[in-house]
Amino acid sequence: MGGGEIVLIIFVALLFFGSKAIPDIAKTLGKAMREFQKATNEIKREINESGGGIGDDIRDIKSTVSNIKSDIQEGVRKHTSDIQEGVKETTSNIQDGINEHTSDIEKEITEVQSEVTKGAENMAKTVDNGAQI
User: Fold this and answer.
1) Is the dihedral of CA 31, 37, 41, 44 positive or negative?
2) Is residue 127 part of a domain?
3) Between 17 and which of 21, 81, 83, 97 could a Cys-Cys bridge form, CB atoms 3.0 to 4.6 Å apart?
């Protein structure tokens, strides 16, 4: 508001209320403004006090969640490592078993081939002996 507007408002107030009522109106208006300012400051103070506690609670919750997250990640890493070691060990055991059985089978095949060869030789001798008779 400019200075001219203020003068106009004072002039209109003088016309409506008269010169004797203006100080009382100003005093009442001043008291109302102080009460309003006091109530506003009280509300701000209460908001700041309660808001500060909420901020601390939120920080505590964030910290707790962060710690839980770290614990879970570490547990997953540990169990993943344990599982990988188990898979490696099992794979190695399976491969050892396959190698052992393959060796046994190869020995048996060699023995069977040897027996078949001996049997064939014996048959050939028998056939030769029979042909000579």
Assistant:
1) positive
2) no
3) 21
Cα distance between residue 29 and residue 17, in whole Å: 14
Q: Is residue 36 part of a domain?
A: yes
What is the band of 133 on the pLDDT scale with cuts at 50, 70, 90?
Answer: low
Mean pLDDT of 89-101: 90
| Structural domain containing residue 87 | 19-113
pTM, entire model: 0.39
Report if residue 9 sits inside a domain: no
Kindly state whether residue 73 falls inside one of the protein's structural domains. Answer: yes
> In which element (H, E) is residue 9 found?
helix 3-17
Neighbouring residues of 25: CB distance < 8 A, sequence distance ≥ 6: 13, 17
